[in-house]
Amino acid sequence: MKTLFQRFIKNESGATAIEYGLIASLIAVAIITAASTLGTEVGQTFKKVSDELTKTN
């Protein structure tokens, strides 16, 4: 029983998988935030261009 517990303590593969999962989720959140902000800015730019084109016609 003692050797089983020691082997369990030394096994870090589960912790590594959790760490990779956390890193991947943080990267995904950063990408979604950046894409959302960029999308809003691009939308505003197109609206400005559209408004200027409408004024000239």
Oligomeric state of the chains in view: single chain
Give me the Rg, rounded: 25 Å
- Strand fraction band? under 5%
- The ordered H/E elements are HH
The best one-word shape is rod-shaped
Q: State the end-to-end CA separation.
A: 84 Å
Mean pLDDT: 86
| Beta strands, count | 0
The main β sheet shows up as: none
Low-confidence stretches: none
Number of helices: 2
- Bin the helical content: over 70%
Which structural class do you get from the secondary structure elements?
mainly alpha
Structural account:
It is a single chain. 93% of the residues lie in helices and 0% in strands. With 57 residues, the chain is an all-alpha fold. The longest helix has 44 residues, at 13-56. The chain is rod-shaped. The protein starts with a helix and ends with a helix.
Jot down its keywords:
57 residues, mainly alpha
Tell me briefly what this model is.
The chain is mostly helical and 57 residues long. It is 93% helix and 0% strand.
Topology of helices and strands:
Elements: H1 2-10, H2 13-56
